[in-house]
Here is the input.
Amino acid sequence: MAALKGKWCTETYRDTALSFRIKKKLYAKKSGFQMVEVYETEKHGNLMALDGCYMVSEAEEFVYHDMLAHVPLFAHPNPRNVLVIGGGDGGTVREVMRHKGVTNIDFVEIDPDVYEVSKRYFPALVKGLEADKRVKFKFGDGIKFVKAARSEYDVILIDGTDPSEIAGGLFGAEFFKDVHRALKPDGIMCMQSEDPWYDLDIIKGVQTRLKKIFKKAGLYLAYIPIYPSGMWSFSIASKRYAPSETRNKKSKIKKFRYYTPALHKAAFELPQFVKDGIK
Ligand code: SAM
Here is the structure.
């Protein structure tokens, strides 16, 4: 086995380790919420880690942000008021902004340092956010924020970290009930819901809770090289529309780098072990 000569960064997760060759470490500082690190990698651009977990890289960020934002925004016929919880790197809000029918984007990230670090090292992710009057920066805990909302949002996107002390509540029934109440009668929520290889139990719990609270719930996958197994899941729940169908005829977005209307539907086709694991 080749020894890791030269400079590398490594994330250890359960019984695996995932390393990338780096040029240098650009940033490392504990914020009020977590350890924030940024590496300049050889092949993946700048790479951010929070509390030692890889979050986003310049090379692959389009996969996660396309699939978290565009599946719910095309499943809804006319999304206008959108809430993004988490997503401090800016990539999800950037993709929501591309839907010109959207009139308001409440951006609720708990850790302002993540956004500031992204401005410095991930300029493509925050491009246009501060110039777009629709984007309302509301730094704070999304779990608390959503409790005060009543039937306001067409789409709520939850772009949180792994279930930890600050993000653990984003995976719970109480939060899902608050999200349900914050959504309009035909609203849709969507969240990143962890790795089917290593965390199928977490995904099963999320799906079980969502199915008890929402009329429809589904799971879809995408493939992200900087995450431990590369396979990643998104859990989507809807008060009315089938999330695997595209309905939004207003958003005339010509080009994506990962999302396609065909992939929107196909992404809900799950491998048998995932289907069995979330039953
Ligand atoms: N968007 C990234 C990607 O491409 O995979 C990863 C996720 S993003 C960096 C996760 C964000 O969720 C972090 O900035 C973290 O501070 C934020 N977060 C965690 N718990 C939160 C909470 N309760 N309310 C708001 N933001 C939260």
Remarks:
- The pocket of S-adenosylmethionine is lined by residues 33, 50, 55-56, 61, 64-65, 85-89, 91-92, 108-111, 114, 141-143, 159-161, 166-167, 170 (CB under 6 Å).
- The domain at 2-57 is CATH 2.30.140.10 (Spermidine Synthase; Chain: A, domain 2).
- The longest helix spans residues 61-75.
